[in-house]
UniProtKB/TrEMBL annotation:
It is found in: Cell inner membrane; Cell membrane. GO terms for cellular component: ATP-binding cassette (ABC) transporter complex. Belongs to the binding-protein-dependent transport system permease family. HisMQ subfamily. PANTHER family: CATIONIC AMINO ACID TRANSPORTER, MEMBRANE COMPONENT. It is a multi-pass membrane protein. Keywords: Cell inner membrane, Cell membrane, Membrane, Transmembrane, Transmembrane helix, Transport. Residues 20-219 form the ABC transmembrane type-1 domain. This is ABC transporter permease. InterPro entries: AA_ABC_transptr_permease_3TM (IPR010065), ABC_transp_permease_HisMQ (IPR051613), MetI-like (IPR000515), MetI-like_sf (IPR035906). The keyword Transmembrane applies. It comes from Phyllobacterium endophyticum.
Amino acid sequence: MFDLLSPVAPGWGANLLRGLVRSLQIALGAFGMGLMIGTLGAYGKLYGGPIVRDLAAIYTTLVRAIPELVMILLLYYAGTDLINRILEGMGYQRVDISGLVAGIVVLGFVQGAYATEVLRGAIKAIPQGEIEAARAYGMSPVLMMRRITLPAMLPHALPGLANLWLISTKDTALLAVVGFSELTLETRQAAGATKAYMTFYLAAGALYLFVTLFSNVILEWVEKRARRGMPSVREAH
């Protein structure tokens, strides 16, 4: 990349592209994990018992109240140390946790709190008559979720989930502080080695912009398919 565009940065373009791929891997993994946590959290808040609702409320409140950078540092360092202490206490050896896995788990845990609220709001937007009709037909909670709740809430959840995906792609940059070689850290190393700060940081910004624009195209297509027969959210506002 940059070896073709500028003699100032020979060979560093591949590093940036490798960092971009790692950033996207983390973003996809964290977004998927956040969706799973968010689905469980939303159902727990809406239909769980008092203890489940309280635990879900504590989780979402704490994660949304603590700055994401602080949460990442806390989970990355304290979390991995806690796991190894538990393993040692059980007689096992300490393990080196993959930076990729740790990044996905840390950001996924953060994403899950926001996804919980997005999905909870989407479920509450479903006309109550549809839920009551499903119960009247004797559907089990799992069957009702698969056939009624999930399809009906998807159009309401998509705008919020789209924002969470874009946030996830940008939050990967925070992992640079713990030494994971995603796009931001690769950019910082390349800029420091070549002193071409403007070149590399503009390039990193362009790559993030490309990811955002491409994501918007995909997300708009998904929204149109999910909202067939319904007014567009953008038109409604």
